[in-house]
Write a structure and sequence with these properties.
Elements lengths: L1 H14 L13 H9 L6 H5 L3 H9 L1 H9 L4 E6 L6 E4 L4 E4 L7 H5 L3 E5 L2 E7 L4 E7 L4 E4 L11 E5 L2 E5 L12 E5 L4 E5 L10 E5 L2 E5 L12 E5 L4 E5 L16 E4 L2 E6 L4 E6 L4 E7 L13 E5 L2 E10 L2 E9 L13 E7 L7 E6 L1
Antiparallel strand pairs: 1-2, 1-24, 2-3, 4-5, 5-6, 6-7, 8-9, 9-10, 10-11, 12-13, 13-14, 14-15, 16-17, 17-18, 18-19, 20-21, 21-22, 22-23
Amino acid sequence: METNLSNKRSKRQVSNGCDRGSLLPALFDDVALKCLALASRSDYASLSCLNTRFNELIKSGNLYGERKVLGIVEHWVYLVCDLRGWEAFDPMRKKWMKLPKIPCDECFNHADKESLAVGSELLVFGREFYDFAIWKYSLIRGNWVKCEGMNLPRCLFGSSSLGSIAIVAGGSDKSGNVLKSAELYDSSSGRWEMLPNMHSPRRLCSGFFMDGKFYVIGGMTSATDSLTCGEEFDLKTREWRKIEGMYPNVNRAAQAPPLVAVVNNQLYAVEYLTNMVKKYDREKNTWDVLGRLPVRADLSNGWGLAFKACGEQLLVVGGQRGPEGEAVVLNSWHPKSGVKDGMLDWKVIGVKEHVGVFVYNCAVMGC
């Protein structure tokens, strides 16, 4: 009787993955998966080298799926400051990691680019010799592949992501025409879908998600005409709503698109001329001044500077020149810490030395 029970228990353990081929000895695979999901993403490369099972697990993406179920998120910063390529920064471990070089042509490598993190992918938009192109880096596979092109290829658009989807709106086509069309990208399928047109065409604009809705603000309809209105897209009704005076800071042709970020459904922006951070009041449709940036944005009209949301913090990535040379510095501020005497308590969370002072592209990926 006791022997039969032992045999049944042994068979049940093997069927649940608790055998010699299990992820963690003496644990069922579903339990082991929950334990491994707690490990830092910085350790995944080391874990994949332990054995075949771990390598297969990392490449399958199941670990990221389990982290999503458990609500575990790590925000990494991806940026490029010179032609040596993209790098990733883990704010928790203070660790820098180099990404593989994009296998693109020289035209794409040297052209202006835009970037967007969506799901577990990093999309980089640029121009190759004959047309626009999109390359995507898969966090799961650890490589670059050519992404399916948009239905209406463009540049200088506003964009943002929410989970596994992203929306791009406006921009210019390769003939220089200013667009009012918008498209949705689904990272789970890798496909683009056309959305209804905005009310106004615009380029050099910025996009963001807030309360589950997509917004686009700023931009220009021509080389001389700027927009102060914003537009809100409801994913449920699939309709655009125009918001007059949402972004009163007038764009100029030489200025960068609005530097905006959303933390806990609160919108923040940078005013280039004063180097001040502002907070948007949705009820009043006005902006309140909070405090000064840790770096200057006025010297280059907002170009070469990144202003992003990184979890529950605002992140500013910009260059600095010092006695030891040039470096790119990552500063963060937690809105919950408040404003003290008109000052924001910026903290340095990372420094990348000897890469110049210009940030060409930057994206934050949380997964």
